[in-house]
Amino acid sequence: MENRTCDVVVVAAGLSGLAASIAAAEEGKSVITLEKSNVTGGAANMGMSPLAIGTHYQRDANFNMTPAEAWRKHMNFIHWQGDARLIKKYYEKTASTIEWLEDMGVEFCGLITAYAVGENERAYATAYPTAHCVKPEGGGAPGPRCAGAMTKRMTERAKELGVEILFETVGDSIIMEDGKAVGVKAKDKDGEFEVRANAVIIATGGFGDNPELIKERFGYEWGKDLFSFRIPGMKGDGIRMAWEAGAGHSKMMMELMYQCPDNMTVWNFDGAFRQPVFWVNKRGERFMNEDMAPNSTFTGNAIVNQPENVAFSIMDQKIVNTYRKKGPDLLDHVHGHAIFDNWEADVEQALSSGYKYFHKADTLEELAESMGVPVDTFLESVEEYNDMCDEGWDDLFEKDRRYLYKVAKGPFYALEFYAGAYGTLGGVKVNHKLEVETDEFKVIPGLYCVGTDACAIYGDCYPFTFAGNTMAFCLNSGRMAGENAAEYIDEL
Ligand SMILES: Cc1cc2nc3c(=O)[nH]c(=O)nc-3n(C[C@H](O)[C@H](O)[C@H](O)COP(=O)(O)OP(=O)(O)OC[C@H]3O[C@@H](n4cnc5c(N)ncnc54)[C@H](O)[C@@H]3O)c2cc1C
User: Fold this and answer.
1) What is the pLDDT of residue 125?
2) In this structure, what CATH number is given to the domain that contains residue 292?
3) What atom of ligand 1 comes closest to residue 478's alpha carbon?
4) 42 alpha carbon to ligand 1 midpoint, in Å?
């Protein structure tokens, strides 16, 4: 590719990059978007629902939370460890972003709460109906990957507006002149070239596919005590590029939750064992009230505080039979309702394929041995727990008494849960306009960063009460940066 010029160059065509590209183009700017892979949409193609506050869906459902109320709750949840001005502007924009998406042809199924369970078991007691589930391409029930319909429509909209997306093109470094960002050095199959522009927007989706950096920054060893989603290509390029250009550092974290290893291949188990049954750690001891299991974030945090970062969810045949007959206690919108429907086939498949994170045994002793936990301690924990079930009161953690099922009738089953994550968050320091700042709070003119590369708005863990926050931050930060970059160029 020969050298190019445009008004705005956007590095990546994932969710936030698409939003930024469209917003800048709608302001009349010429936009070139560099995309490393051969598709748009990034991790968003795997997801389901962005958050919004104050939409027509919520008004119809008589859910009348205002953006200011959501902002206040968010700030309290994160203990004010985030840029209040950015977060306020973000929440204020979310409802209009749903309309913006609808105007370009994105359809939503409506609202979903995070979990279809009683109030006690919901994330942080009450999950608000904030997630707006994208209607899957071609209809059908919403499920994982339905947000691909949104990124597809956004891509079409970008192209209609004249955004030029250069596929299999890697943004490599930011061109700086007189302290301003004035373009990007890029590489494609033919070699290096430059895209000169008045504004640069970084949107490369974090470093979820960079185990070395994850180990360095967070201490987790991917494949050993972390089994996060690894969307190919998310190496942290944009964060590196911004830092090399003088950007400051923002707090980085994994967007932590929990899952069994390789969960997409044992999807029913991942949901079936996510029940408020009997859970122990590697010492064979209970470590939390299992009715918290639907709160993916808090349970993930609890797991990474256990030896070897692992938890075992254990059921006996009687519980399995009950769940198969009456349905499980906890259902979530991601795993769906059919998680016990093929139990025997799922067990057979896991055993015959040698899936080592699933255990089945006729006796509790054999189960403990298979799990690699001390047999004596495990048997004591079971006995203590079964006594509490008889008494109808969990003396240790006060788990909801409805879920006090004894562990008594073999065969016994266990699944190992580890920390998982959707990806990484944060890295590049931005202000409320998504302008990149140095560590000394000085704006780097012409440089913007959006999406997960810039997302440092959660304090230390994902605020599940407001489900859909990550996609929403990507969409809205992208939109705001596109608009702000256009304004910056107009004032040059
Ligand atoms: C399984 C799964 C389910 C999820 N479900 C939800 C959900 O329901 N709700 C929610 O809010 N969030 C959800 N998320 C999170 C959300 O999808 C992501 O956080 C979001 O897509 C991130 O957007 P982004 O623009 O920062 O990065 P992405 O959308 O991931 O895009 C990054 C892009 O950068 C490109 N890229 C990387 N490096 C370069 C480079 N050097 N040059 C050019 N291009 C580059 C990549 O190829 C990619 O296209 C989910 C995530 C996963 C993995």
Assistant:
1) 47
2) 3.90.700.10
3) 25
4) 4
